[in-house]
Write a structure and sequence with these properties.
The chain is mainly α and about 120 residues long. It is built from one helix and no strands.
C-alpha cells in the first residue's frame, strides 16, 4: 500500500500507515472528513426524500388533473345537451307564434274575402 501524501482521504490507506498518516493531526483530519462525508450522506438522503415526496405530489396532481379533465368533458357534453334543448324549445315557440299569426290572419282575412265574393 502507498502513503497518502496529498492529505486527502484515501480509504485504501490505513490510519497508522506512513509518515503523513501518523499522529493526532491525521486523526483530526480523518474525523473531519468523516463528518463531512456524513453530512453529505445526510444531505443526499434528505434530497432523495424530498424528490420522492415531490414525485408523490406530482402523481397526486396528475390524478387531480385527469379527474378535472373528465369533469370538464362531462360538463361540455351537458352544456351542449342543454344548448340543443333550448334551441328546440326556442324553435317550438317560434313555430307556435308563426302558426298563431297564420291562423289569426286566416280568421281576419277569410271572412272579408268570403263576404266580398258573395255580394
Amino acid at each position: 500500500m502507498s502513503t497518502n501524501q496529498s492529505g486527502l482521504y484515501d480509504p485504501y490507506v490505513s490510519r497508522g500507515e506512513g509518515a503523513a498518516g501518523a499522529g493526532p493531526q491525521s486523526a483530526d483530519r480523518t474525523r473531519k472528513l468523516n463528518e463531512e462525508i456524513d453530512d453529505v450522506v445526510l444531505q443526499m438522503k434528505d434530497n432523495l426524500k424530498k424528490t420522492s415526496e415531490r414525485g408523490e405530489r406530482l402523481d397526486d396532481l396528475q390524478d387531480k388533473t385527469d379527474a378535472l379533465a373528465t369533469q370538464a368533458n362531462g360538463f361540455r357534453r351537458g352544456a351542449n345537451r342543454v344548448r340543443k334543448q333550448m334551441w328546440w324549445k326556442d324553435m317550438k315557440m317560434r313555430m307556435c307564434i308563426i302558426v298563431g299569426i297564420i291562423i289569426l290572419l286566416i280568421v281576419i282575412i277569410a271572412p272579408s274575402v268570403y263576404a266580398a265574393k258573395h255580394h
